[in-house]
Amino acid sequence: MRDITGCVAMISGANRGIGAAVAEALHADGWALSLGARDMAALETSAASYRTDGDGGAAVTLHRHEATDPEAAERWTAETISAHGRIDCLVNNAGVAHPDEFEELTEDTLDEMWEVNAKGPFRMLRATLDHLRHSGEGRIVNVISMSGKRVRGTFAPGYAMSKHAAMALHHSVRHLTFPDGIRCTAVCPGYVQTDMTSGFGVDPSIMIQADDLAQALATILRLPNTASVAELLVSTEPETIA
Ligand SMILES: NC(=O)c1ccc[n+]([C@@H]2O[C@H](COP(=O)([O-])OP(=O)(O)OC[C@H]3O[C@@H](n4cnc5c(N)ncnc54)[C@H](OP(=O)(O)O)[C@@H]3O)[C@@H](O)[C@H]2O)c1
């Protein structure tokens, strides 16, 4: 396992759900954090339990990030460099899911999922890649979904379209940056018990817990360059692919 002391991770959508759990797990591992969210008050609240000034823990900074704003990625990246001086890891986590079936899916809904789930990570990668290349041990995590790996009957075709696009971006950037020592992991969970799945009509007791996912990811981020995990498939039920 490598030493991540002094390393800085940016995490989008860090105010709740999977993003908040990943932030807490990485902070416990010693990462300094640059956390992005739309709602700064919610981010302050979610980070309050582990963000204590002057306790010897790594620095945690909070930044406003609206994924549909084309300038937001460059702005947050510049703020992170100004505050921390380096970026070692990017966690593209912010995402939106509309479970509409084909007949109900509107272009506006489709456009929102494309903007947040596919173009959001694209813009973040464009903005941060040069910084991630610096150490020769940069890390990229794209939180995608099983819906980026397979299509589940008629369920949520627009979400699956956006997440398949995100998966294409993931593998393209993984190949591009491998020679620079950057290792990219696509996290592909099935149902995780967060706000996103609360209206899906699925029994919460069978769902993945965000904290468990975060622990798995924290472990992957401690692996050296010689142990690359391109995809982490985490399922809560038997899948054809995992
Ligand atoms: N839950 C699941 O079963 C599941 C399964 C597979 C993959 N995923 C993926 O995991 C990621 C996190 O999902 P989650 O389950 O933690 O969902 P969640 O609890 O609904 O949280 C979504 C996060 O994304 C942020 N976000 C949404 N739209 C945004 C925008 N336009 N700009 C910036 N941030 C935005 C939200 O910010 P606000 O609080 O401001 O809305 C929130 O922080 C997503 O990419 C999701 O697709 C989830």
Kindly report the average pLDDT value: 96
> If you consult CATH, what is the topology?
Rossmann fold
Low-confidence stretches: none
CATH domain class: Alpha Beta
Distance between the termini: 26 Å
CATH architecture: 3-Layer(aba) Sandwich
What does the oligomeric state look like here?
single chain
Strand neighbour order, sheet with most strands: 3-2-1-4-5-6-7
In terms of DSSP E residues, the strand content is: 5-15%
CATH homologous superfamily (4th level) name: NAD(P)-binding Rossmann-like Domain
Report the bound ligands by name, code or SMILES.
Answer: NADP nicotinamide-adenine-dinucleotide phosphate
Structural class: alpha/beta
C-alpha-based Rg, rounded: 17 Å
What's the domain count?
1
- Taken from the alpha-carbon principal axes, the silhouette is globular
Primary descriptors:
242 residues, alpha/beta, Rossmann fold, seven-stranded parallel beta sheet, 6 helices, binds NADP nicotinamide-adenine-dinucleotide phosphate
Explain this structure.
The longest helix has 27 residues, at 107-133. This protein has helices spanning 17-29, 40-47, 72-84, 107-133, 157-177, 210-221, and strands at residues 8-11, 32-37, 60-64, 89-92, 139-143, 183-189, 231-234. It is α/β, with parallel strands linked by helices. A seven-stranded parallel beta sheet has the order 3-2-1-4-5-6-7, sandwiched between helices. Helix content is 39%, strand content 14%. The protein has a single domain (8-234), classed as NAD(P)-binding Rossmann-like Domain (Rossmann fold, 3-Layer(aba) Sandwich), CATH 3.40.50.720. The structure holds NADP nicotinamide-adenine-dinucleotide phosphate (NAP). NADP nicotinamide-adenine-dinucleotide phosphate (NAP) binds at residues 13, 15-19, 37-39, 42, 65-68, 93-97, 116, 143, 145, 189, 191-192, 194-197.
